[in-house]
Amino acid sequence: MKILAIESSCDDTAAAVTEERRVLSSVVASQVEEHRIFGGVVPEIASRRHSENIVYTVNAALEDAGVSLSDIDAVAVTAFPGLIGALLVGVNFAKGLCLSTGKPLCGVHHLRSHIAANYISHEDLAPPYLCLVVSGASSAQGCLSEVTVTVTVTGGKVTAVQVDASAETPDLGGKAAETLAAQLTQTGSTAGVDAITGSTMTSEAIFTAMDACLAQAQ
To answer: In this structure, how many other beta carbons lie within 10 angstroms of the beta carbon of residue 123?
Structure first.
């Protein structure tokens, strides 16, 4: 199955064509230099540039892959989370493309797709495994089997920890998630992680907690 994938969640306009776990093409229109003078991404500017770049980016991805729209089986697009104006450009473009061609549309979760990207570079990868996502300085996720631990960071400080686990979750995954959540939330953590209240969560502290949770789960 060939999929045309479209991404516009922040400042880069990107498109790719994939077949199973193979990437046939990947094209990115970057806005880094334009936003650099502001010290960060300006949402309104990003949205306007997406509108200008998306047609060229998608056409280039199709051309680089040596395919046409008629060869594409489905269209995937980043739907959330992200800058709302930027997301709307990609989502509406993808919806229009699907309406005009009759192709199925698949909305993609931005953070979960970071985890799923590992299936491309690691062909033999299969759950259970532990994965950390740090995206836009806004969040971090650890995923083990059917357990997802989400750490929300605001202004460089951890503000919330949430653990989601299904009833079918293996004991190993459940214990690991509970351990990680406890280490992130308790003052004087045995894993050396700072308390959430008024503390800055460094990348080293997150990795320390993840290592500790795996060790205790075993």
So the answer is: 9
The 10 Å Cβ neighbour count of residue 98 is 18
Cα–Cα separations (whole angstroms), residue 115 to 21, 50, 121, 129, 193: 14, 24, 11, 10, 24
**Beta strand pairing call for 74-80 and 2-7:** parallel
Mean pLDDT of the 80-87 span: 90
Q: What's 200's DSSP letter?
A: B
Q: Are 136 and 152 in contact (CB under 8 A)?
A: no
What pLDDT, in 10s, does the model give residues 25-73?
999 999 999 999 998 889 999 999 999 999 999 999 999 999 999 999 9
Under the banding of pLDDT at 50, 70 and 90, the label for residue 193 is very low
- Measured from the Cβ of residue 87, the count of other Cβ atoms closer than 10 Å reads 22
What is the structure's pLDDT at 171? Answer: 43
Please determine, for residue 147, whether its predicted confidence score (pLDDT) is greater than 90: no
From first CA to last CA, the distance across the chain in angstroms is 38
Q: Reading across the β-sheet that carries 105-109, which strands appear in turn? A: 22-29, 13-19, 2-7, 74-80, 105-109
CA 20 – CA 24 distance, rounded (Å): 10
- Separation in Å, CA 86 to CA 15, 68, 135, 189: 14, 25, 16, 39
Distance between CA 129 and CA 143 in Å, rounded?
7
- The single-letter DSSP state of residue 193 is P
